[in-house]
Write a structure and sequence with these properties.
Bound molecules: adenosine-5'-diphosphate
Strand content: 25-35%
Radius of gyration: 22 Å
Strand order of the largest sheet: 13-12-9-10-11-14-19-17
Number of helices: 15
Distance between the termini: 54 Å
Helix content: 25-40%
Largest sheet: 8 strands, antiparallel
Number of strands: 20
Structural class: alpha+beta
Length: 447
Amino acid sequence: MFQKILIANRGEIALRVLRACKELGIQTVAVHSTADADAMHVRLADESVCIGPPASRDSYLNIHQILAACEITGADAVHPGYGFLSENAKFADILAAHNVTFIGPSAEHIRIMGDKIEAKRTAKRLGIPVVPGSEGAVRDDREAKRIAAGIGYPVLVKASAGGGGRGMKVARTEADLSHALSTARTEAGAAFGDDAVYIEKYLEKPRHIEVQVMGDGAGNAVHLGERDCSLQRRHQKVWEEANSPALNVEQRTRIGETVAKAMSDLGYSGAGTVEFLYENGEFYFIEMNTRLQVEHPVTEAITGIDLVHEQIRVASGGGLSVRQDDVRFHGHAIECRINAEDPRTFVPSPGTVTHFHTPGGLGIRVDSAVYSGYRIPPYYDSLIGKLIVHGRNRVECMMRLRRALDEFVVDGINSTLPLFRDLVGNVDVANGDYDIHWLENYLAQDE
Ligand code: ADP
């Protein structure tokens, strides 16, 4: 087991990892920018190192500084959290070259899944269902037209190097296609320096359903069920649940086993999430995240398995603590991402949180690094806390969520709490009857 883990992150996820390390009796090192000197993760860690000025590229993304912090403190492993360097294959390589363990999958698997076309090709080879479309990048308009005619309109033109929903264009008819191709290429070239694009069938009303997996790198892999993250705004997840209200046990088992088998064949190591669009009973792979995700606590709530413990065990060579037969799903869990943003316009609202009071009681978990008097710096993402509620079934979970939201107090800044208070009372949400466009349509009604 590791002696000392350096946590290359900030905010709630740094605390989350720190808690797991403490439980396992592992020393912790926090790193921080000058803007985060008074942050909770710095206060609670055994040691801390300032790694640079506020801008992420100079601190949390600064590989040399983080490596230096490992050397100064003698950390033998790094947990990257999510975001920042968590899916940076070069970072994983550099750590390995310095005999520091990267708590995550191999650099090779990070690279494969980081390239959309390569990821899709790999998924298909491993028997994971993918969206019908071109095999790799399309060369020219003629080839694109031929492929689009084959799969049928509407189609989606996507950038190979894509991310954050950029470089994506829908073509509803052949007449739209040339224009969609040229705008997607221009956007992709400007955003990613790579104008390769590919084509997929455009799904009109899908849900976003993702499968959590854990592999030991030696051919054993388990799935921990799925999460439904269909409630999104601008491709950002807002509300996540486990299990999905749209799946039955048979569908859950089938897709879970498909993914676990694929990860076992790949020899995948650590935590990963295989993301799908789901429509009319069919799953379509969109991407794989080779890291812990923001919404992992809903899976922890219904399985009782600590994903960060598992990540650390696997990275240290201790293998997985569970086999597929040990995994059981209990009840239902929902996570609300509380952001420091205006609940209608979503304009960020950094500043001092004058009063912060979190709900408690049975089935409630709040992951947050905020405290009363904390000043939210303007340099990073606006997530200030995650409210995770667990109940014996979805109805109980929703009742508990409603009262937990009533108890939650965030004063001094704007937060998205009022949005969740609206959502928890909405009929479609209560019925679990929503697709990936539902939230945007709901928000547009008020404008
Ligand atoms: P990015 O990496 O840019 O976020 P993704 O491939 O993950 O790109 O897709 C982002 C979002 O775009 C998905 O969550 C979904 O909302 C939408 N999307 C992607 N592919 C399709 C498709 N074939 N049909 C419909 N919507 C899609």
